[in-house]
Each structure stands twice: as structure tokens, then as C-alpha cells.
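Design request, C-alpha cells follow.
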């Protein structure tokens, strides 16, 4: 038998290094495969379900769903949020998302339409209620879902859809991993703007009445209102709102506690006109407000109806106190049956509403002031919008 040559310590060192290198390569490949499987099953998960292999061997990136984010750049931390959403899409093996920023001239309608034209299968509104309204206006009747990344003061639709508010990471998860549902939207058409001097109805109309598209309808998703609530929104201090959030609306409301009651003529579903004296008339699609307040307890987002609340108070502060009590009770599913109340909310519902506002009144839609209006019409648009909501807990 031929004798193997003796190995020097240099030879043994080289052999040992080669074996260690081979082991390191095998370990690296094994770890990389485990990490990839974990990302495909759930970001950060240790293992992957059987479906992960289908994603890995499925269509290439260009064929996977494209997500667009329509972002209001005036909101804080938006730049950092962009990095976060790109990372979230990458972890889910989605294409790099579109990032389209709103402008003063276009608060999101044009950007959302551009996203659809470029093939987006999901459009995420990043901002407050104004951005949400604008994106929704572009997506109605398109079957492209709208998701929400709420960064505003009220975040009204997000609260009514149980989308996390104040937790961007959770909202991103809801947007990318949630489920779709169809909801109604409301539309308001201004038939006549208030005169520049509301005391003189013959005076030439200015401001919003100069709208080049007078037949345009304005979308709302939560609540539109005339009277006290709209005047409160119109007088809210923007700097205070940036500091204390939705509480600034209540601070502004104190200024109007002793304001006049409004004279309103109302027609529901084409029936006879009704003459009302009230503080506010609300027309809503859903009714949950910040602070857990429930203004429209019977409102359902997908029932094909507008819920209407006539709010009135007399007796000064005592009337407002009783009214606040009525709102709080509604949140617990309770109603005050007593007829002689100095602060009250009367509820009904309709598919269309017409209003004539004596002298003109402020009108707000989802917390955005539309202007001072003398006549308007509102209607429900059933099942017009697809929205992305959090997936049910497993």
C-alpha cells in the first residue's frame, strides 16, 4: 500500500480553514432560506405557511399589485412615513409603491386618478379628512379600494371604520393586509350660495358662488352639517388645532353657544316642506366622532340611507348641558323619551334631502367648510366606494 505523504501543520491549517469555510457557506444558505420563508409567511415570523412557496414562485414583481400612497406633505412626519411604507411593501414582495403628494390646488383627486391610470390596485390616503374626501371622490365607482393612513385632527372615517388612529405602523398593516368592504357615500350640490351680505339676498353673490362648475357635487363620507356645527368648524383656530387636536373644535364651539337659532326649510325624499327652528341640521353616513361621541347612533355605512339629526337647544347653558347629556346617552344606546326637553336631538332618515337656509348658513362636510349656502340638496350614493379595513383577528 502506498503511504500518504506526511502533512505539515501548514497543510492541516489549510484543510481546517477549507472545512470551516464550507460549513459557513452551508449555514449561510440555510439561514437565508429560513429568513425568506419567514418574510413570506408574515413579516418577522420564523416560519412560513405553504402559500409562501406560491408567492416565491409566482408572477414577477411587475405583475403583483401596485399600491399608491396619496400623501398630504403638510402633515408631520410624512417624509419618515414614506420610508416606512416602502419597507412594508418590500417585506410583502410588492412592487415599490407610488408616492404622490397633494398640493393646495389639488388636495388629492388628481393624484388618485393618476394612480388608477398607472395601474394601482390600492390607493392609500395619507393625511386628514380633507385628503380622504379627495381620494374617495376619485375612486367612487372604480372598484379600486381606498385605504387610510390617518394623520389628521378628526380622522372621522378612520374612527368609523375602526382603523388605528395614532399608530401609523398598525394603519399600514391594515392597509396592506386588511380586507375590503363596500360603503355608501353622500353628495351635496349647492343650488344657491349665500349673498355676500346675508341680510340682503339681492346682493351679488361672491366667493364660492363664482365656482366655474356650479353643477359640481361635493362628496362627504361621514357627516355634513349646517348651523352651529359648521360655524364652529369655520371659526376653529388652526394653530390651536395643531397643538391640541380635535379639542380645538370644542374651544371654538364656546363662541357660538349663545348664537341665534337657524330657520331651515327641509324636504325629505321629495315630500312636503317642513319649517324648522334649530341649532344644527346634520346629514350623515355614519356618526362616530372623536372622544367617543356618537351623534348618529342608527347610522350604518352601507345601508343605503342618510341619517338626519335635528339638534336644538333653548334655555342657554342649561339647554346645551342637556344636549350634551343626550349625546352621551346615545353612545350607550339610550334615548331620553321625555317630550319637553330644552336640549334635544330628533332623528330620521332619507335617501335625499333638500334645504333652504334663511339668510344663508355655513356648511361643513366631514370637518371641511364648504362656504355659506342658501340652498342645497344632498343624496346618498349606495355602495359607491370600496374601502380597506383591518382584517378580523384570528
Amino acid at each position: 500500500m502506498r503511504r500518504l505523504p506526511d502533512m505539515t501543520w501548514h497543510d492541516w491549517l489549510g484543510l481546517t480553514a477549507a472545512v470551516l469555510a464550507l460549513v459557513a457557506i452551508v449555514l449561510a444558505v440555510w439561514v437565508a432560506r429560513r429568513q425568506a420563508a419567514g418574510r413570506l409567511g408574515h413579516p418577522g415570523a420564523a416560519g412560513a405557511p405553504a402559500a409562501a412557496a406560491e408567492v416565491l414562485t409566482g408572477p414577477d414583481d411587475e405583475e403583483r399589485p401596485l399600491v399608491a400612497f396619496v400623501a398630504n406633505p403638510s402633515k408631520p412626519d410624512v417624509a419618515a412615513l414614506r420610508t416606512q411604507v416602502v419597507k412594508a411593501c418590500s417585506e410583502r414582495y410588492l412592487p415599490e409603491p407610488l408616492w404622490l403628494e397633494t398640493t393646495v390646488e389639488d388636495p388629492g383627486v388628481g393624484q388618485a386618478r393618476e394612480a388608477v391610470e398607472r395601474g394601482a390596485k390600492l390607493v392609500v390616503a395619507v393625511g386628514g379628512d380633507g385628503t380622504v374626501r379627495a381620494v374617495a371622490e376619485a375612486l367612487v365607482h372604480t372598484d379600486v379600494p381606498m385605504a387610510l393612513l390617518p394623520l389628521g385632527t378628526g380622522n372621522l372615517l378612520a374612527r368609523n371604520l375602526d382603523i388605528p388612529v395614532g399608530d401609523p405602523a398598525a394603519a399600514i398593516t391594515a392597509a396592506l393586509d386588511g380586507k375590503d368592504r363596500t360603503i355608501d357615500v353622500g353628495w351635496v350640490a349647492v343650488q344657491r350660495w349665500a349673498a355676500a351680505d346675508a341680510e340682503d339676498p339681492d346682493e351679488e353673490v361672491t366667493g364660492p358662488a363664482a365656482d366655474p362648475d356650479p353643477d359640481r357635487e361635493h362628496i362627504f363620507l361621514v357627516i355634513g352639517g349646517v348651523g352651529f356645527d359648521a360655524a364652529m368648524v369655520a371659526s376653529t383656530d388652526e394653530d390651536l388645532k395643531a397643538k391640541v387636536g380635535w379639542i380645538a373644535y370644542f374651544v371654538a364651539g364656546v363662541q357660538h353657544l349663545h348664537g341665534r337659532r337657524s330657520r331651515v326649510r327641509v324636504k325629505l325624499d321629495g315630500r312636503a316642506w317642513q319649517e324648522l327652528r334649530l341649532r344644527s341640521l346634520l346629514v350623515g353616513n355614519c356618526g362616530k366622532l372623536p372622544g367617543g361621541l356618537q351623534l348618529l347612533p342608527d347610522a350604518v355605512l352601507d345601508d343605503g340611507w342618510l341619517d338626519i339629526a335635528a339638534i336644538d337647544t333653548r334655555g342657554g347653558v342649561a339647554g346645551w348641558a342637556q344636549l350634551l347629556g343626550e349625546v352621551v346617552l346615545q353612545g350607550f344606546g339610550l334615548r331620553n323619551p321625555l317630550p319637553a326637553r330644552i336640549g334635544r336631538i330628533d332623528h330620521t332618515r332619507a335617501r335625499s334631502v333638500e334645504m333652504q337656509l334663511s339668510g344663508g348658513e355655513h356648511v361643513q362636510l366631514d370637518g371641511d367648510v364648504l362656504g355659506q349656502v342658501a340652498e342645497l340638496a344632498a343624496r346618498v350614493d349606495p355602495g359607491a366606494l370600496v374601502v380597506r379595513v383591518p382584517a378580523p383577528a384570528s
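Comment from the thread starter after seeing the answer: thanks! The CA atoms of residues 196 and 207 lie 8 Å apart.
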